[in-house]
C-alpha cells in the first residue's frame, strides 16, 4: 500500500495552459457556481487512483471480515457462559485451597445427555437439552445447603420462543439462556456459578467416591445401548457403583413418571453422607482437583473446595431438598405432559429455602402463612410394621380438622422414627403437624408422595402416642 501512495505522490503534475484574458464583460461573465469544465487527468494518474481505490476497498472488506469474526467469537462465548462476577466467592488469603466460602453462593447444576467437552469459550460441542436441573444455595453463615429440583418439562417463557420446556433453553442458548430464564422464573434470584456434566462424568465421580449407599425401593431394570448401560437392581440397601447409580437415576416408567426426582434426591443425600465419611477426608483435595479438571464449570478451584467442604461439614438437617411445586398438565395444543408451576408454592419455597422475598405486588404474608388444614394434602405411609396404626392416625388427623388426608402404599424399609416429609416446602404447616405428632422429625425433602404437600411416614415410635389416638 505504501508503494501505491508513493507512486501517487510522485506523479508529475500536468502542465496547465496559460490563461487567456476573457473578452466577456463583467455583466456577461458566468456565475462562479456555474459548471466548470475540468480537463481529464493523464492515464497514469487515473490508473494509480484506480489501483489505490481498489486496494482500499479490499483492505476495508478484510478488516470487516476480521472484526466480524472477532465479534462472532465473543458472541458465541456469551451465549453459553454465565458472566463471571469477578469477585471470588471463596477465601483466597492462603496458598492452600480454602475451606470456606466468603458469602452465599447460588449454583446451577445441569445434567446433559450427550458429551460435554469443556472449551476455552465455555461451549459444548453440540447443543443438548438439559436432563437434570438443580438450583443449589450454599450458605456458609447457616452452614446449610438448599436444593431446588426443577423438572426438565417445566414450562417457562423463553425469549423469542414463547412457552417451552426449560430443558430446551440449554439447547437454544446454553448456560447463559438457561440461567437467565430460571432467574426470571424464580423471582429474579441471582445465579452465581454453574456446573455442567454428562453421564460419563457422573459415573466417574461416583466411582471416585467408591460408590454410594442407596435404598432401592423396588425391582429396577434399565438398559441404554447408546451409553452402554445395563442395570438390574433388586430391592434393599446396597452400595452402587457409577454405572448402577446412573441407571438408578435414569429409570423412568413413562414421560409423566416423576419418581426420578425421588432418586435424584436419594443420590444427592447419599453423596453428602459419603463426603462426610472420615475415611474420605484425606482424599478430598484430590477429588476436588479431579472434579475441577473434568467437569464444565466457571467455579474456581477454591470455590469448588468450599462447596464440597460445606456439603461435608453440614449438620444432619443442613441439607434441604424440595421439588419445584406444580403438577403435570396437558392441553389440546400441548399433548406431551408438561410441568405447570404452582406460583404460590414457588413463592413459599423461595421464601423459606432461599430467603427470597415475594414478587412485587404480591401480599407480604402470602408465603410464610401455613396452608389451611382443610385444604392441605397429606399422604399417610406406614413404615412401622403395625398394620393398624395408619388407620388410627388417619382418623385422629381428620378429627383435628385435616380433611384432605389419604393413605398410600407401605414404605418397604422399616423406620424407627416418624418423618414429616415437607414435600412442597410448607414448613409452617409441617411444624403445626409436629405438635400433634410429638416424636416425629421434620424432613426437608420431596421424598414423599408426589401428589401430596406433606407425607407422614409413620415409624415405630408412633406406637408410643397412646394419648393421641388411644392404645393400638
Quick recap:
Belongs to the LytR/CpsA/Psr (LCP) family. With 472 residues, the protein is an alpha/beta fold.
What layout of secondary structure does this protein have?
Elements: H1 2-10, H2 43-78, E1 105-112, E2 130-139, E3 144-149, E4 155-158, E5 162-165, H3 167-185, E6 193-198, H4 199-208, E7 212-216, E8 220-224, E9 229-233, E10 236-240, H5 242-250, H6 259-275, H7 284-294, E11 296-297, H8 301-313, E12 319-323, E13 326-329, E14 338-341, H9 343-354, E15 378-382, H10 389-399, E16 405-407, E17 419-421, H11 427-436, E18 441-443, E19 454-458, H12 466-469
Parallel strand pairs: 1-6, 3-12, 15-16, 15-19, 17-18
Antiparallel strand pairs: 1-2, 2-3, 4-5, 6-11, 7-10, 8-9, 13-14, 17-19
Domain LytR/CpsA/Psr regulator C-terminal: 376-461
InterPro entries: LytR/CpsA/Psr_C, LytR/CpsA/Psr_CW_biosynth, LytR_CpsA_psr
Pfam family, one: LytR_cpsA_psr
Verbal overview:
This protein is of the alpha/beta class and 472 residues long. The protein folds into two domains: 105-354, LCP protein (Aminopeptidase); 378-469, Alpha-Beta Plaits. The chain contains twelve helices and 19 strands. It has helices at residues 2-10, 43-78, 167-185, 199-208, 242-250, 259-275, 284-294, 301-313, 343-354, 389-399, 427-436, 466-469; strands at residues 105-112, 130-139, 144-149, 155-158, 162-165, 193-198, 212-216, 220-224, 229-233, 236-240, 296-297, 319-323, 326-329, 338-341, 378-382, 405-407, 419-421, 441-443, 454-458. The chain has a six-stranded mixed sheet with strand order 11-6-1-2-3-12, with helices on both faces. The protein has a five-stranded mixed sheet with strand order 16-15-19-17-18, with helices on one face. Strand 15, helix 10 and strand 16 (405-407) form a beta-alpha-beta unit. The longest helix has 36 residues, at 43-78. The radius of gyration is 34 Å and the shape is globular. The protein starts with a helix and ends with a helix.
Amino acid at each position: 500500500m505504501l508503494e501505491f501512495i508513493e507512486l501517487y505522490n510522485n506523479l508529475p503534475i500536468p502542465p496547465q495552459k496559460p490563461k487567456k484574458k476573457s473578452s466577456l464583460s463583467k455583466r456577461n461573465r458566468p456565475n462562479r457556481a456555474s459548471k466548470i469544465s475540468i480537463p481529464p487527468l493523464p492515464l497514469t494518474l487515473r490508473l494509480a487512483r484506480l489501483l489505490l481505490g481498489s486496494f482500499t476497498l479490499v483492505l476495508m472488506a478484510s478488516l470487516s471480515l476480521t472484526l466480524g469474526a472477532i465479534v462472532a467469537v465473543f458472541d458465541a462465548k456469551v451465549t453459553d457462559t454465565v458472566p463471571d462476577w469477578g469477585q471470588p466467592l471463596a477465601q483466597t488469603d492462603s496458598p492452600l485451597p480454602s475451606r470456606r466460602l466468603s458469602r452465599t453462593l447460588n449454583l446451577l447444576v445441569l445434567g446433559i445427555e450427550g458429551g460435554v467437552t469443556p472449551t476455552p469459550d465455555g461451549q459444548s460441542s453440540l447443543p443438548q437439552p438439559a436432563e437434570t436441573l438443580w438450583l443449589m444455595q450454599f450458605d456458609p453463615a447457616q452452614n446449610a445447603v438448599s436444593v431446588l429440583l426443577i423438572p426438565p418439562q417445566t414450562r417457562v417463557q423463553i425469549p423469542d420462543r414463547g412457552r417451552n420446556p426449560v430443558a430446551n433453553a440449554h439447547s437454544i442458548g446454553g448456560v447463559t439462556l438457561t440461567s437467565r430464564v430460571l432467574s426470571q422464573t424464580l423471582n429474579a434470584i441471582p445465579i452465581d456459578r454453574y456446573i455442567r456434566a454428562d453421564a460419563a462424568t457422573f459415573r466417574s465421580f461416583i466411582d471416585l467416591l467408591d460408590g454410594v449407599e442407596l435404598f432401592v425401593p423396588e425391582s429396577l431394570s434399565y438398559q441404554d445401548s447408546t451409553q452402554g448401560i445395563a442395570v438390574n437392581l433388586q430391592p434393599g440397601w446396597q452400595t452402587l457403583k457409577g454405572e448402577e447409580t446412573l441407571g438408578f437415576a435414569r429409570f423412568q416408567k413413562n414421560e409423566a413418571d416423576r419418581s426420578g426426582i425421588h432418586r435424584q434426591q436419594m443420590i444427592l443425600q447419599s453423596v453428602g453422607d459419603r463426603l462426610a465419611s472420615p475415611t474420605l477426608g484425606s482424599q478430598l483435595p484430590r477429588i476436588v482437583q479431579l472434579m475441577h479438571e473434568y467437569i464444565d464449570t466457571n467455579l474456581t478451584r477454591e470455590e469448588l473446595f468450599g462447596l464440597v467442604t460445606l456439603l461435608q461439614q453440614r449438620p444432619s438437617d443442613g441439607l434441604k431438598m424440595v421439588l419445584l411445586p406444580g403438577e403435570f398438565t396437558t392441553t389440546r395444543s400441548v399433548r406431551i405432559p408438561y410441568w405447570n408451576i404452582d406460583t404460590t408454592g414457588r413463592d413459599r419455597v423461595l421464601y423459606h429455602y432461599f430467603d427470597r422475598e415475594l414478587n412485587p405486588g404480591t401480599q407480604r404474608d402470602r408465603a410464610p402463612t401455613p396452608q389451611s388444614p382443610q385444604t392441605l394434602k397429606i399422604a399417610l405411609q406406614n413404615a412401622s410394621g403395625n398394620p393398624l396404626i395408619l388407620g388410627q392416625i388417619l382418623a385422629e388427623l381428620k378429627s383435628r380438622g385435616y380433611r384432605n388426608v389419604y393413605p398410600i402404599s407401605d414404605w418397604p424399609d422399616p423406620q424407627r422414627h416418624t418423618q414429616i416429609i415437607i414435600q412442597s416446602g410448607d414448613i409452617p404447616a409441617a411444624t403445626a403437624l409436629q405438635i400433634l405428632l410429638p416424636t416425629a422429625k421434620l424432613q426437608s425433602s420431596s421424598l414423599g408422595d408426589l401428589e401430596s404437600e406433606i407425607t407422614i411416614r409413620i415409624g415405630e415410635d408412633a406406637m408410643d402416642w397412646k394419648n393421641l389416638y388411644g392404645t393400638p
